[in-house]
Amino acid sequence: MALSVALVIGYFTVLGFVALRARAAREYAEFSLARQALPLALIFGSLCAAYVGPGFSIGFVGRGFHSGLLFLCVGLAYACQNILVGIFIAPRLRSLTDCHTLGDAIGQKYNRACQVLAGVISVGLCAGFAAVMANAAGVVIQGVFHIPLWAAVTLAVIMAALYMSFGGLKASVMTDALQFTLFSILMPGMFLFLLIRVLNDSAATFTRELVTATSAGFRSTSSIEVVGLIAAFFLGETLIPPYANRALATQTTSASRNSFILGGMFSTLWFTMMVSLGIVARTIVPEGTSEDRVLLTLIKTTMPMAGYTLLLVALISVIMSSLDSLLNAGAVAFTEDLVKPFARISDKTALVCGRLATVGMAVLAAVAAVAMPSIIEGLLICYTIWAPAILPAAVLGLWLKKPRPWAGFLSMVAGATAALSFQFIWPDVVGIPAILLALAVSLAAYLLGHVLGGLAEGR
Amino acid sequence: MMETLVLIAVVLVAALVVASGVWVGVVLIVTVTRIQRPASSPKDRTPENAGP
């Protein structure tokens, strides 16, 4: 117990030191984009740390445990998405001048109303994603300190909000890079330890479990469900605010492209390792263990005390890095897309606004955290809303020569409304995943808006 | 044979993940140790402190 507490306190101290070295942001451009001076390695590490949250670690181990390589196939869709964003979207986004957020990019391509709408969606989704992360962080910290969940959630959120509100994006990227280093060394270490020490005739046992779990996974999941999951992972996190901010914060357009391509390649490695951990867990963890508890149970049953604590620190890193990125991205979206379009504010006021918004986002995340379902389910709800609400407008806006404001606005309104309706009101209306239906509605609305906009321009 | 290949593949994957972490860690250490106090603003650069 004392060792666990000491290691967790040590972790937070190092985190605080790195955040302090990043210096408190003194200008809004430093808070929102770190002056676009961050090197490729840090952006890459930070991008990976931002997306490797509880869903892509705890969630993937749980899915690997129950369905073997099925979820690796789903994860590959995510890797492809990152690589495609790197090749086709990130450089275009980075080449925009005076652009701080995805909403800003949408505002530049369409108009101010579209920027505000994109801002509302960005802030709402960042709060939703942050609530999922805060809940997961709370569960892990609760395991270390044996305190109530609400207190553990509050601790995680306060820590993230503290260094985010002072350091802004630079602190986020640097602390994320530290956390990336920690978990990408500790988690494979644990995996190799399990392979060598726990599985006796490892190669044969591992392969047998892999085949059994994968067959069971494909048997228990219908093809339409697989299509829905692939769509959700392919589209759901595309260009969410923390990733868009990182694409904008790189030194050059090529660094922006390369960080996403490398991020996509890393995700393949990471998913393979997490799913493999789930497969290894099949010989150790009881069969009925709930999805979100597989990794924690595996660590607890197999690791010596010091290793167990170190891995809890790695898990906290995984979660905190996603949480802080989301708080920062939500705060910047709030300032840039919801405050600046309505008020001419000085750089100093924008900085104060960003800091206060970080605290506001943290409070929202902490309150919503207690109402979250399982990690993967919480993430899938966020994906279902984000992709139809923003992607058609953002991607087509960046690619079309003269995108029309009507198209962007209608697509965002229709996409968000359809996603909420198909997710919560009529979840099983035609048996097609909500994300695909809502995306179709959003694209149709974009086309309609494009035609209507053309007619209005012709008058 | 097949089992061994699968095992080698997953070990290789774990090694690549570690290598990524080491790369980012090294760049982070270099960045953190290189960060110095901010350069003085132009108005601070008077003829007295401008240097030779």
- N-to-C order of helices and strands of chain A: HHHHHHHHHHHHHHHHHH
**Count of DSSP H/I helices of chain B:** 1
Which regions of chain B contain 5 or more consecutive residues with pLDDT less than 50?
39-52
Residues in β-strands, percent of chain A: under 5%
* Gyration radius from CA atoms of chain B, angstroms: 24 Å
Overall, the morphology of chain A is: globular
Walk me through this protein's architecture.
- The complex is a heterodimer of chains A (459) and B (52).
- Chain A is an all-alpha fold and 459 residues long.
- Chain A contains 18 helices and no strands.
- In chain A, helix 7 crosses helix 15.
- Chain B has 52 residues and is mainly alpha-helical.
- Chain B is rod-shaped, with a radius of gyration of 24 Å.
- At the A-B interface, helix 3, helix 8, helix 9 and helix 12 of A face helix 1 of B.
Structure described in brief:
The complex is a heterodimer of chains A (459) and B (52). Chain A has 459 residues and is mainly alpha-helical.
Could you outline the blueprint of secondary structure elements for this entry?
The complex is a heterodimer of chains A (459) and B (52).
Chain A: H1 2-21, H2 28-33, H3 40-51, H4 55-67, H5 70-94, H6 102-109, H7 112-145, H8 149-198, H9 202-220, H10 223-235, H11 241-249, H12 253-281, H13 294-302, H14 305-339, H15 347-369, H16 375-399, H17 405-425, H18 434-458
Helix pairs in contact in A: 1-8, 1-14, 3-8, 3-11, 3-12, 3-14, 4-9, 4-12, 5-10, 5-11, 5-12, 6-7, 6-16, 7-8, 7-14, 7-15, 7-16, 7-17, 8-12, 8-14, 8-15, 10-16, 11-12, 13-14, 14-15, 16-17, 16-18, 17-18
Chain B: H1 2-34
Task: Jot down its keywords.
heterodimer, A: 459 residues, mainly alpha, 18 helices, 0% strand, globular, B: 52 residues, 63% helix, rod-shaped
